[in-house]
Amino acid sequence: xxxxxxxxxxxxxxxxxxxxxxxxxxxxxxxxxxxxxxxxxxxxxxxxxxxxxxxxxxxxxxxxxxxxxxxxxxxxxxxxxxxxxxxxxxxxxxxxxxxxxxxxxxxxxxxxxxxxxxxxxxxxxxxxxxxxxxxxxxxxxxxxxxxxxxxxxxxxxxxxxxxxxxxxxxxxxxxxxxxxxxxxxxxxxxxxxxxxxxxxxxxxxxxxxxxxxxxxxxxxxxxxxxxxxxxxxxxxxxxxxxxxxxxxxxxxxxxxxxxxxxxxxxxxxxxxxxxxxxxxxxxxxxxxxxxxxxxxxxxxxxxxxxxxxxxxxxxxxxxxxxxxxxxxxxxxxxxxxxxxxxxxxxxxxxxxxxx
Length: 355
Fold this sequence. Notes:
It is built from ten helices and 17 strands. By secondary structure, the chain is of the alpha/beta class. The protein has a single domain, classed as 3-Layer(aba) Sandwich (Peroxisomal Thiolase, Chain A, domain 1), CATH 3.40.47. A six-stranded mixed beta sheet has the order 6-5-7-8-2-17, sandwiched between helices. Helix 4 links the parallel strand 5 and strand 6. Helix 6 runs parallel beside helix 7. The N and C termini lie far apart (40 Å). 46% of the residues are buried.
């Protein structure tokens, strides 16, 4: 499915990361696995450090801290937006929506559309699509898009295929009308037949959590996890990305009549460094145009990785300049999407720690 939007822009990006940092070397102590093979995994995949929340910290805590930072520093007016979108797969509760909880904790105005979207690694682009559509309404002047997940709380520390790479984080993106006649092109695809490639089997109504679903099981190579934990078929996800994402990006560029050489950066979701380097090679894109250093510093933070690669690598550049970029995201669902837009001249582009 293709979308196009006119006269919309990203005005600012803030990322929020937990102050609590763990290293891959620390995590290895939890794995019943030869150290030499673990270190090889660290080298190839780019695992080094990741940020995880302390017990009890939820998505709304990160989001509220980020918004309070923006209010306090005069970067966003408390009444200066008309919609709040939260994209997460780790909500505070089944109900009410976590976006309403954020609104209530900050005592925001009642004339505010609050919306939760259940999406993961492709959630930044999906959230932007929703924000751009809301801006078609005269009553919506500005949208706050929050991407946030605390999936370390749903990942087994004894599963080296998942735990060393998972990271917790939140991002706040301000989306508004652009006085320039800019054009944004987007492509989005979904395939629910492959939904089991990334899944937390228990905890919903299909399989409620119970003492039985909390039991750790050996799922191969001494990796231990329960049905309450995140399960990822790494090979299936890798093959999916290498096959589907390059074609999606090529079709997006063709629809926009823009050659890849005219794109300054491809800012991609980051599962691991190895996957991104192979993706860049498949696209025949210089690796320097696809930064791949987020996972080694912060972990895979689901839908926050694209805002994080922006604030970590391009903050100063994008405050002063505009660049033509592709945002590429893919993951749970399975879902994959890409967006071509001019990004820059940002009012703010920074990263803060929580607490």
